[in-house]
Specification:
With about 400 residues, this protein is an alpha/beta fold. The protein is about 40% helix and about 20% strand. Strands 9-10-8-7-6-5-4-1-11 form a nine-stranded mixed β-sheet, with helices on both faces. α3 links the parallel β5 and β6. The radius of gyration is 22 Å and the shape is globular. The chain starts with 18 loop residues before the first strand and ends with a helix. Bound molecules: iron/sulfur cluster (SF4). The site of iron/sulfur cluster has 11 residues, from loops.
Length: about 400
Amino acid sequence: MPLVLGPQSSHIPRMPARHLYIHVPFCARRCSYCDFSIAVRSVTPIDEYLKALRTELAQVASRDDAHRTQLLFGDRSARWLTGKPARDALETVYLGGGTPSRLGGAGIASVLDAVRDQWQLTRGVEITIEANPDDINDIAVAKWIAAGVNRVSLGAQSFDDAALEWMHRTHDSAQIGRAVTILKRGGIDNISLDLIFSLPDHLGRSWRDDLMRAIELKPTHLSLYGLTVEPMTPLGHWADRGQIVQGGDEGYEEEFLAAHELLAGAGFDHYEVSNFGLPGKHSRHNSAYWTGVPYLAAGPSAHSFDGAVRRWNVLAYAEWIRRLDKGDPVLEGEETLTEENRIAEEIYLGLRTTRGLDLLPEELSRAQVWESAGWATINQNLLQLTPLGWLRLDSLAADLAARREPSSADV
Ligand code: SF4
């Protein structure tokens, strides 16, 4: 289906969604830094989750149909349209969490069956699941592959056992290596590793050692996140009691830049502020978020976007189950992007990736100041942030957004 432009002027393409996110909220225990919407369960209620998910996927698909009809035929379509336009095949499916691997081999296969009941998948579809190292075994991996999974994002976080214990992770460093070996032996070689930097100094964790250990496992992709102290987490309580001392902005910057240098030297493209991929192995699902195209979503706390409206689901798993059981909608809120929001988003999304941002003529002199500071490069009129610039991403994006009037961007 060709790209469809919406009724109002927009740089964000108005088109049907071809990307689906599914939130799987289960975790064996809560990590010390985590404030995500999760459901801690020693035994995963797979059947209960699947029943509710199937109901919600039918709702999502029917909303997707209505959106596609509106895009293709406009508001008057309902007067004469008898059939529905065929659904677009999905290009990416991403199971995130929580810990999707807690669903095991058969559970993941059932989730993907439920997806295929509603949508076709393209021949080259990227199907990612997030997994914890301690859930990886040969039997589960064989079932994931048979179900179509072709990419695994592994929550490694660190290779330092003391740091892993401090984070309340359920695995040790040896299990990360074992998990990668099992995945590759089973046939999944598109593996991303998550690592956390800017850990408190008292842990004595060596960030460079962690990066080297990760590189030795030959992943295709790495996602790096700076530790943030969220209130109402064990980490937040430790911080309130003065029990942790982080390295401050200086330590954060040092570790971020060290990661850029080491991973670029190992052949990885630093293609988004937090993400590194070998050529051809950038995350297609996350890249869709960063280009501003529409995406569908299901599961507690899941967010979707149709190109103009952002919607989000009820947060708590128990409430999500209760509503779906009664046949009630699980949408909790929605926000229509204003022209101002859209401009700010376009700037932020462009600057956070190496895709960059097309400068308006009146922005050139400002961008040249950033270029002389080493924060950006300008090629023709394309502005791209450097790693030094990414350390200031929020303030640089806000600075540009404040200068860009809605009318001047509407060209
Ligand atoms: S495994 Fe992930 S989602 Fe679950 S508690 Fe830990 S950080 Fe949070």
